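Example record

The entry below shows one chain as it appears in the dataset: sequence first, then structure tokens.
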Amino acid sequence: MNALSKKGRSPKSSKLVFVHKIADLSSRGDIEAISELLKGYWKDKRAYPWHRLYAIIETQWEKENPDQDLQETLILLRDAIFGSLEMLSLSLALNIPASEVLVLVCKGESWKDGRRLARAECSTLAMELIEKGDLGNLTPSALERDGMGFLLASLHEAHLKEFKMARPKTKDGKLDLKALSRTVYGRRLLREKTIAASSIDEADPAAVEILETYDNLILELEITDASRIIPIESTEQVTLNGKLIEDSADKEEIHKAKEPTPSVQAPLTEYLLVTAKGSRPKSRKRKTSKKKRSKKSLAKKKGGRK
């Protein structure tokens, strides 16, 4: 991996082997393999020294790779850590160092616990960005893909607030579109109208059309916002991605309601009884028919005697 040093040290003796392995997997986009390496930390910390990853870089990089740019490797390591935690969408958005995220992961008693700690901290930081209006690097589709759909309602509301404040204004006979172009929904509007300019003449028919479309889009977004948020009762539980967890007790009640009651089977078992001698069971219908025939024959006899 590294060229032989003057001392004749082989690449295998390099203390950066683990670092380069992670960076290589990250460059190839093999996030699954990186996740397996990260899970190995709880099996053998010496073989998977994630807790010493950045300390190794700090002490060994200049010694072993004095002419190699470290920045590219650090970017690959950051993508590897965020990707293995399934929150790659926050890698660019958050200012938290990847080393701090890794510390949170290694604090966990297990892989799942460490992953939960890191994701909880990063989701809190993402919510703070939304509240501040720093929305540039937060994409709804990416957040939903990473299982952070619970942030979408707040993100949509923040984008809508930003869009409302960016209503185009007229200045010196021009309709200024700069503020509009800096918003997510504003860029969408201008793209649909195929307008790339930062301003257009107030007398241009397109200016009137933009303002009309702007008002209609705000109404549409407000309706969408109201319809997409489902009220959640206080007794209901929600997963990290915003999905409701159904109550197991309710499932049992529904299952019990569908089960047939024992009384339905009772009449049927009467026809399946077998006599002590092993003879075939006789139905009530046949017994009744014999009784009717005996009564009829007795009546005929009596009629004959008269």
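Notes for this example: The beta strands are 169-171, 174-176, 199-201, 237-238, 244-245. The radius of gyration is 37 Å.
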